[in-house]
């Protein structure tokens, strides 16, 4: 089970991430659901454990969804921050 998954099971409504600039937040349950959904999308797109991806994005709450989806999928990744 992933870190968000552990906390989603015990404290689903607790805040997992807050973006300082916008105040946008995700609960552990939301983070778990979104990262699971994105992990499935990456597998459906043909990515397999051991594949490499790069995340090119601004600082955004979706980064965390992508990060945990990649971990969950067994992908190697690097970040490129704008």
What does this structure look like?
It is built from 3 helices and 4 strands. By secondary structure, the chain is an alpha+beta fold. The protein has a single domain, classed as 3-Layer(aba) Sandwich (Rossmann fold). The strands form 2 sheets. A two-stranded antiparallel ribbon has the order 1-2. Strands 3-4 form a two-stranded parallel sheet. The model has no long low-confidence stretch (mean pLDDT 91).
Strand order of the largest sheet: 1-2
Describe the biggest sheet? 2 strands, antiparallel
Share of β-strand residues: 15-25%
Tell me, briefly, the overall form.
flat
- Uncertain regions spanning at least 5 consecutive residues: none
Describe this structure in a few short sentences:
By secondary structure, the protein is an alpha+beta fold. 45% of the residues lie in helices and 23% in strands. It has 3 helices and 4 strands.
Name the features.
82 residues, alpha+beta, Rossmann fold, two-stranded parallel ribbon, 45% helix, 23% strand, flat
């Amino acid at each position: 089970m992933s870190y968000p998954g552990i906390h989603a099971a015990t404290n689903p409504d607790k805040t997992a991430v807050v973006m300082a600039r916008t105040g946008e937040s995700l609960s552990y349950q939301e983070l778990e659901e979104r990262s699971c959904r994105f992990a499935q999308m990456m597998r459906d797109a043909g990515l397999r454990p051991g594949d490499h991806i790069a995340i090119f994005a601004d600082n955004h709450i979706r980064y965390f969804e992508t990060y945990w989806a990649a971990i969950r999928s067994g992908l190697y990744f690097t970040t490129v921050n704008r």
